[in-house]
């Protein structure tokens, strides 16, 4: 049997309420040559959970981390180790894709080595749009490292197998930063389509929006700084490593500003709401 063109990598931790939406968005893709590998990072049995929701497809496989709560990066690595596709496409279990996402992005990733899209940020509880990664109506753009590091919305990049270096399990909460920078390093830039094809759901109770998310992010930034000195995080271009060091200090300051804003606001607020309120990253 031929390998699928793309492997969709789905880490799952306490995701029983949201994973059905994520997997339905995958089943609705206009491109069907995919496999999905769901990596349970808890004690849930997601095959049974999905089956109870009427979701059963032979393209969906299930694996498990060797212990609970290894983190999203560790779970993604377990899923990728079991994957067969020529391209990795991470999908968080509480997010959703628009139907044409793989149709549009996969050919770009296969050709260039990496591809991503504009992102629509949505409040999960209300369905209210919070914003987008880039303003609507602007054209596709090729991001270099400084342009990527200036963004403040997670970018879920499709990466060709020969450009893949995995996710950093020791980097808490911000493992997408070194992952995407390695993709930029290997692909010579990251093409981001103007059309939003990924819906990033801001959800109370998720790891990224927990009460200690600012502390966890700061630990992740500190780990990245230490790793840059130790092994360069697998980033080969010294100019990208330098840009990352500078950006990490800026992101730590922004993270501190978010904590002050959240703690002084009735009811708190998420980082994405802070960015929308602030007007720019």
TrEMBL record:
UniProt xrefs under Pfam families: Glycos_transf_2 (PF00535)
Entry-linked SUPFAM superfamilies: Nucleotide-diphospho-sugar transferases
Keyword Cell inner membrane: no
Molecular-function annotations in GO: transferase activity
Keyword annotations from UniProtKB, A to Z: Transferase
Residue ranges annotated for the Glycosyltransferase 2-like domain, each copy included: 7-132
Superkingdom, natural source: Bacteria
Protein name per UniProt: Glycosyl transferase family 2
Native organism taxonomy: Bacteria, Pseudomonadati, Pseudomonadota, Alphaproteobacteria, Rhodospirillales
């Amino acid at each position: 049997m031929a390998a699928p063109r793309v492997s969709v990598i789905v880490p799952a931790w306490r995701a029983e309420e949201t994973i059905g939406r994520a997997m339905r968005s995958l089943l609705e893709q206009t491109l069907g040559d995919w496999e999905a590998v769901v990596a349970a990072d808890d004690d849930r049995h997601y095959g049974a959970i999905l089956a109870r929701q009427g979701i059963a497809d032979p393209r969906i496989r299930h694996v498990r981390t060797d212990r609970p709560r290894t983190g999203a990066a560790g779970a993604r690595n377990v899923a990728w180790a079991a994957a067969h596709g020529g391209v990795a496409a991470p999908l968080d279990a509480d997010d959703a894709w628009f139907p044409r996402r793989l149709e549009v992005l996969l050919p770009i990733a296969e050709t260039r080595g990496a591809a991503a899209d504009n992102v629509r940020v949505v409040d999960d509880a209300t369905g209210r749009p919070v914003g987008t990664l880039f303003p609507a109506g602007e054209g596709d753009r090729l991001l270099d490292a400084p342009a990527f590091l200036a963004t403040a919305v997670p970018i879920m990049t499709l990466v060709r197998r020969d450009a893949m270096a995995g996710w950093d399990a020791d980097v808490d909460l911000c493992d997408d930063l070194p992952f995407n920078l390695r993709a930029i390093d290997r692909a010579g830039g990251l093409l981001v389509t103007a059309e939003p094809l990924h819906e990033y759901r801001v959800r109370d109770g998720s790891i990224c929006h927990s009460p200690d998310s600012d502390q966890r992010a700061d630990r992740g930034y500190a780990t990245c700084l230490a790793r840059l000195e130790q092994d360069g995080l697998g980033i080969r271009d010294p100019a990208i490593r330098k840009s990352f060091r500078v950006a990490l200090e800026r992101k730590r300051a922004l993270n501190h500003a978010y904590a002050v804003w959240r703690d002084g606001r009735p009811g708190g607020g998420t980082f994405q709401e802070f960015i929308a309120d602030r007007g720019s990253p």
